[in-house]
Amino acid sequence: MIRLRVLTASTGACTHISLHPNEFTYSTIQSRLAAVLPVNDQIILIGPPYKVPKDSLLRNNETISALRLGDEEDELIQNGRHSLEPAERTGSKRIFLFSKRALANNAPEPPDCVLDPAPGPLPMPTQSDIPPPPPSPSDVVETPLRNALELYVRQLMLDVAKGRVYADGADLRLAACRKCLSEMVAIAHALRAAVSNLSDHRAGAVRQRTQFSSDFVDAASFYMGLLQKFELRAGEAYVDETNTFSVENESLGSVPLHPSLVAAARSSGRMMETLLDTVPLDREKAWANKCQTAHERLTASAEDLEAAFGTAVGTSSGWNEEAQEDLAAEEIIKMLISEVEDADNRIRLSQSEKNDILASNQSEATRIMSTAVRNESKEGRAESAFSSLEEMAKSSSSILMTMESDDNILSQLSQRVADAKSAAMKRMKSRLRHISVAQSEIARVTSSVSVLQHALLQLKTDIGHLEHVVELPSSYQSFLTEIQRRRAYCNAFKSIFDATLERLNLMRADEIKLREAFLRGPGKHLMPAFYEIFVPTLATSPAVFSPQLPDMLEFQTLPNVGSQSTQYNSSSTESGSTLMSSQVREMESNVDTKDQSVLVSADENSGNYDVMMQTMSQGDVAPRRKDDKAERATLKYENAVLRQKLEQAGVKVPPYIDSHTTTTIHPDENDSMDQRHKEQHRKISSLAAELERVQKELEAARAASAQKEAANLRPNSDLETTQQRSDKISHTSFEVGDIGLFMPTGRGRGGKRIYLAFHSSCPHRYLSPDCIDGSPDFVLGRIVYQEEFEAGALNTTRNPFGLHVGTKFWVLTVEVVKKG
Asked: 620 with 525: CB under 8 angstroms?
């Protein structure tokens, strides 16, 4: 069983509940506390951090351990052996119960605290309350001496009874004080929980507003650019007025479809010749107009939110004052705890010792009376007994007077404790009402922020459909490359099936990853026609492996898009080989390292084994190829993968070479191509040299201009320059090099004066204490360094200037110009 203490915030009363671990949920705790407050009137906070608990948090072992630690601390407080300490230092947690009705304006005032026993004199026993002496034996004769001595003994017995009342009263008064103080400590902890919860609400609202503002600014810029690009993409044809072609401005109507795709559309009864024909243009334009209207409405709502947020979550001048009052109330509790501990150590023990003395006197008096009665016939025995009893009676009377005085002290202490708790409960009601109003205002603003955030996300989703149209040209190019790569894959798959089953499985796994990358990347921007008409299997996985080679149905559905560039032989010219090598190196610097094990060059792996398969093999040496046809098909597939990665990295891809269609280049054509490459290389080298020369001339001109300006400024004296720099005192902003005027505002930690910069709407700029000696009336200095901080808890080194927790402030280090 889990035994927990729940503290009532308004009174500090403690309620014990026991739950089975399976029953440790929020709803079960509410039902167990229904006897204290109705379920619909309960607000339960657990912390720190103080929040409404969730079932997952309650069932966490760390949470249960922290709650038990909080219970142990409360037990120590109730026993007078512990003081009020922040729970954040010990890692303990507590459960607090708040009442919703107590937060209303018309909530009744809490009743005054009354302790038991009530402050004032304690009820004392009388002579009639003393039991009569036991009857005398038959052989004992009643004599006047015996009766007189019994009167003394009965008086001492009455004194013992009074002493017992004082001793027990001291225990009861101190126990009541400790219980009352433990409830006051619970009220103080509950107020901390409420204030912390309000601070979390305020910080969360600020973060949410800041995040929304940042997202809105970024989204607004993106949306406007996207809408402009959509208008360009939706054009029938590209009109170039600057004679400079740009892919960013390319219209879909100017991008023709591959002949094989046009033929596939015609076979399906559709006429599609350009990318624009694949787009439902009227519907997309209507959607763009709706997005434009939604963006304008969202902009107006964001402006209204900024005004409302400044009113609801703005800095309040009373926050710091209320925090100081809370600390003062806690200091009163600490002082009373100290007084009760002192009374417990001094008065309670004294009352107990005095009561023991009274009981000892009564026992001694009984003994003296018995001795005197037995020796009644002896001369002088009676007078001696009366003398001893008289001294005991006087001593007991004196002891009772001191015990009564100590009881009066305890009575006054209990009255102060009761009054302090009454004041604490009334102040708690007022503070909780203020916190509730503040949280309601923050909740309204936060709700507005949440609505606008959802609207922004919805607008992002809506306008994201237009991005498909904008990105369609680049996705179309990736689509063509993807189809070429898939055709190469199908050929390789057929060729290497008989080589090894393991290699086939690994290759298919790599193929699945590549397809997923395409479908999650460029493929998500393709129109439905690409999936439904052109390539129905575009979104499918490769054929599932089986012991027998399946029919390559996918290969039959893939159109033969071929190559969009002029074919060439990579070994025909030296310049072509150099171009290929440089592009591969550029690709290796852009493509992520984890892909380099798959993307390899066919030129580098034309030896006796397959490098791509080697990276996935567990052996030290890859097995040799058994079939030359399988090796050629695999290298062709790797080449297709490499080309696709090059395109994704933004590298210009060399023309595609098909071994079945490659033609022999005539020697004259080879010489002509070589001559053209050399001419292009010469022009590039000439332009690079000219650019380098112009850059050197520009740098020389800049250096000469700087020297001339320095020579013109040199005649001015250093004194005049310093005077010009020091004439103006900054007050609207503070940067390194500015002059600041710092005035004293009070005393800080260690008794040193605090200097605040004279400013206009630029607060919390404080002078570093290391910059000055003594206590001047003002300091004028040039800022050489400034550092930003955030105020921590009050009366700590993280808040040396007594600011509200969470306030940002700056400490400025200056070069003192003047002080007075």
From this structure: no
* DSSP helix/strand/coil, 723: helix
What is the identity of the amino acid at 456?
L
In Å, how far are 40, 181, 208, 585 from 295, measured between CA atoms?
41, 59, 20, 44
| Tokens of residue 112, six digits | 């005054």
Backbone φ and ψ for 756, nearest 5 degrees, come out as: -110, 140
3-class state of residue 14 by DSSP = strand
Contact 648, 595 (CB under 8 A): no
Helix, strand, coil abundance in the chain, percent, nearest 5: 60, 10, 30
* Burial of 317 (C-beta count, 10 Å sphere; 0-12/13-18/19+): exposed
The DSSP string of 499-514 is T-HHHHHHHHHHHHHH
Alpha-carbon gap, residue 603 to 766, rounded angstroms: 68
Terminal C-alpha separation, the chain: 71
DSSP string spanning 304-372? HHHHHHHHHSSPPTHHHHHHHHHHHHHHHHHHHHHHHHHHIIIIIHHHHHHHHHHHHHHHHHHHHHHHH
Classify the C-alpha dihedral 733-734-739-741 as positive or negative.
positive
- Residue 632: which residues within 8 A CB-CB, separation 6 or more? 495, 659
418: DSSP letter: H
Residue 533 DSSP code: I
Q: How many Cα atoms are found within 13 Å in the side-chain-facing hemisphere of 462? A: 20
Pairing of strands 14-19, 2-8: antiparallel
Task: Give the separation between CA 119 and CA 640, rounded to whole angstroms.
Answer: 96
User: What's the angle, vertex CA 563, arms to CA 504 and CA 478, rounded to 5?
Assistant: 70
Q: What is the pLDDT of residue 605?
A: 35
What pLDDT, on a 0 to 100 scale, did the predictor assign at position 48? 83
244-248 contacts at long range (C-beta below 8 A, 24 or more positions apart): 247/473, 247/474
pLDDT score, position 86: 54
Among the listed residues 159, 154, 152, 156, the one whose alpha carbon sits nearest the alpha carbon of residue 124: 159
Residues 371 and 379: their CA atoms lie apart, in Å, by 13
Looking at residue 561, its amino acid is V
Provide the edge-to-edge strand list for the sheet that holds 42-47.
14-19, 2-8, 94-99, 42-47
b/e sequence 277-311, b meaning 16+ C-beta within 10 Å: bbbeeeebbebbeebeebbeebeeebeebeeebee
The whole-number pLDDT of residue 667 equals 42
* 442-445-450 Cα angle (round to 5): 120
pLDDT of amino acid 422 = 92
The CA distance from 543 to 556, in Å, is 13
For 245, the 3-state DSSP assignment is: coil
Cis? peptide before 280, omega within 30° of 0 = no
What is the distance between the alpha carbons of residues 745 and 765, in angstroms, rounded to a whole number? 12
Quote the Cα angle for 736-742-745, to 5°.
135
Among 118, 77, 74, CA closest to 92 = 74
Task: Please list the ranges in the chain whose pLDDT falls under 70.
Answer: 75-89, 133-147, 236-249, 311-318, 373, 375-382, 496-502, 504, 545-553, 562-628, 650-678, 680-681, 683, 708-727, 749-751
Cβ neighbours of residue 500 under 8 Å, at least 6 residues apart? Answer: 623
Query: What digits encode the pLDDT tens for the residues 146-165?
Result: 667 777 788 888 888 888 88
d(CA 382, CA 679): 148
Amino acid at position 298, single letter: L
Confidence at residue 111, expressed as pLDDT on a 0 to 100 scale = 87
d(CA 727, CA 739): 8
Contact 421, 113 (CB under 8 A): yes
Which residues on adjacent β-strands are paired with residue 747? Answer: 753
Report yes or no: 569 and 665 within 8 Å, Cβ to Cβ: yes
State the DSSP H helix or E strand holding residue 816, giving kind and residue range, or none if neither: strand 808-819
Q: Which amino acid is residue 584, in one-letter code?
A: V
Nearest 5°: CA angle at 497, between 496 and 503?
75
